[in-house]
Specification:
With 280 residues, the protein is an alpha/beta fold. The chain has helices at 13-30, 35-46, 52-76, 100-111, 138-148, 159-173, 193-207, 224-229, 232-237, 257-274, and strands at 89-93, 117-119, 122-124, 127-131, 177-181, 215-220, 238-242. 49% of the residues lie in helices and 11% in strands.
Length: 280
């Protein structure tokens, strides 16, 4: 049996680049005339255009992060509990393919908030991101948070044990922001809706925690709205951010002026990256 070692699995930057160049040479040998075009197409596909909606989203996300930062400052300064405010929620929703995930990833990458910080021998994790578990229940949500923090729960802990760990760890890692993708799983509970409701109660407890309140960003399709709308406390702490796809009008078949400008900008940028002169 082969032993899996660094000899077989190099993970340095130089090795990765050498492997990539090898694949490129292979592609050029197979497709000598198309190799350059394939690279250009790959570059275009990786391109991300910042649209007006991105700017608005970053403003909303910035306010949520500011709220989370304020709560962390209050706790660090040992201010009276009565002076603290609950964490906030930002719900980003829209149809599949509307661009929610790429918009979120572009915003998060801007500040590298998910990278973590090494300080005095401790690893601080200001923000975490993970996909909503399915089924979306109290235990699965708690374990997903712990995994995102680099921990695994011990031997099938009971729900109270899982959440005791969550509440103990979040202040220690200084985690003030939780981002949950595919959060529409919260309303796909089959015949046991009480399970997702118990998870929602735990989220509410996280935002309202007296010692370490956490802010939450939920990203999902339109059914996610029901998860927030049916709880008064969460609804009061929530900001909605709908993401609409760029699409022609259902009657006229035309793009509105704002979308048309975005499409033209995207085409021009794609042509520039592909080095296609006078394409437009």
């Amino acid at each position: 049996m082969a032993i899996w070692t660094e000899t077989y699995a190099p993970n340095g930057a130089e090795e990765a680049q050498a492997s990539l160049e090898g694949l490129r040479r292979f592609a050029n040998d197979l497709l000598p005339e198309a190799g350059g075009n394939l690279r250009r197409i790959a570059g275009i596909r990786q391109m991300y255009m910042v649209l007006d909606r991105d700017k608005k989203f970053r403003e909303c996300l910035g306010r949520i992060v500011e709220s989370a930062t304020a709560q962390a400052d209050v706790t660090a300064s040992k201010t009276m509990i009565s002076d603290r405010f609950p964490g906030q929620i930002l719900t980003v929703y829209g149809n599949s393919g509307a661009g929610k995930t790429r918009m979120l990833e572009a915003a998060l990458a801007q500040g590298k908030v998910l990278d973590g910080i090494e300080k005095n021998g401790f690893r601080l994790i200001p923000a975490i991101r993970f996909q909503a578990p399915a089924p979306f229940n109290r235990v699965q949500l708690g374990e997903a948070i712990l995994r995102a923090l680099g921990m695994e729960s011990e031997n099938d802990l009971k729900p109270d044990g899982v959440w005791k760990n969550v509440r103990n760890v979040l202040p220690r890692t200084r985690t003030s922001l939780i981002v949950i993708d595919e959060a529409q799983h919260a309303v796909r509970h089959g015949r046991e809706p009480q399970h997702s409701l118990s998870a929602r109660d735990e989220m509410k407890n996280l935002t309202g925690n007296d010692y370490w309140p956490v802010s939450i960003v939920l990203v999902g399709t339109k059914p996610l709205r029901r998860f927030i709308q049916t709880d008064n406390q969460l609804r009061r702490r929530n900001t909605w951010f709908p993401v609409k796809p760029i699409a022609p009008h259902s009657v006229t078949g035309l793009l509105n002026d704002g979308d048309l400008g975005d499409v033209v900008d995207a085409i021009e940028e794609a042509c520039r990256r592909a080095k296609l002169a006078n394409a437009i």
